[in-house]
Amino acid sequence: MFEAMEQFVRVVELGSFSAAAESLGKKPSSITRKVNQLEHEVKTKLLIRSTRRLDLTPDGEQFYNQCKQILQSVHTAKHSFVKEDAKVDGSLGIATFDSIGRAILVPLIAQFRQKHPDTKIAISLDNNLSDLHKGPFDLAIRYGRPDDSSLLFRPLRLMPNVLVASPSYLQQSAPIESPEDLKSHACLAFYRSRQHTWWHFKKGTEHRKIRIDPMLSSEGGTPLLMWAKAHQGITLVSKLFIEEDLKDGRLVEVLPNWQASLTEQDNAMLYLVWKPSSAQKPIVRAMINDIVEALSDRPKEFVQA
């Protein structure tokens, strides 16, 4: 039953049986069978399945939370022996995006070194994906499942994007009623060398692909956010980083009825990725635990892949 609970939790976290199967190296039919057996054992329906969606039933929501607590307890117990048997020291390299690094990873590393002072950590805030096999990095935080099947990975949380601007900019500019209206506005976007910049929009079954000619561009998300708050235009950023700005009114959502993304696939799942050769290092295991604890999340609704 423990294995079935793990697979059920992974299905909920990733939003589909196929994604859970891929992350666990199993067939989707095997995952489906395990979850069906789990529902039979607990004598209640846990998931509502449709052609495009998976939703937790009320009992499923409660059972999911209980499973998470049980799995976390086992995980903590298992790794408590690692702390006793192996000292957390040595060097560690982490690669991630600028915005995630500044907002989340930098303070997390400071807390990590307070617990483990005999460690040396190097961080790269580079929006270009680092090759973990060639570079000096043990871990990476990135969007989407890695294409390299030799890497180990774990889903962390959904990071939906949102289109935002300052109230002052919107008051002084033409109304924005559809994605096409963005063509006449000052857009702030990631720098793409010799590539066109596209923003993708979805509402129900309707999809739009808009080519953006940025007035200001940057390789990192931090400058884009600063420019937006300085009334320079409209940008597309992860909602996680601007919740306080939205709450305090420094930024407002643009086209809130549309789901905006940087890619056509709209893969907003954040993943922690690491090399198998690094997995046995106590410093790597300790950092993985801290990152998962800080970032792991699950939406209440999700789309089935």
Automatic annotation (TrEMBL):
PROSITE patterns xref list: HTH_LYSR (PS50931)
The HTH lysR-type domain, residue ranges: 1-57
An example molecular function term from Gene Ontology annotations: DNA-binding transcription factor activity
Tagged with keyword Transcription: yes
Keywords: DNA-binding, Transcription, Transcription regulation
Domain of life where this protein originates: Bacteria
Pfam families to which the protein is assigned, alphabetical: HTH_1, LysR_substrate
Keyword Plastid part of the UniProt annotation: no
Family matches, as InterPro entries: LysR-type_TF_proteobact-type (IPR058163), LysR_HTH_N (IPR000847), LysR_subst-bd (IPR005119), WH-like_DNA-bd_sf (IPR036388), WH_DNA-bd_sf (IPR036390)
Family membership: Belongs to the LysR transcriptional regulatory family.
Protein name: DNA-binding transcriptional LysR family regulator
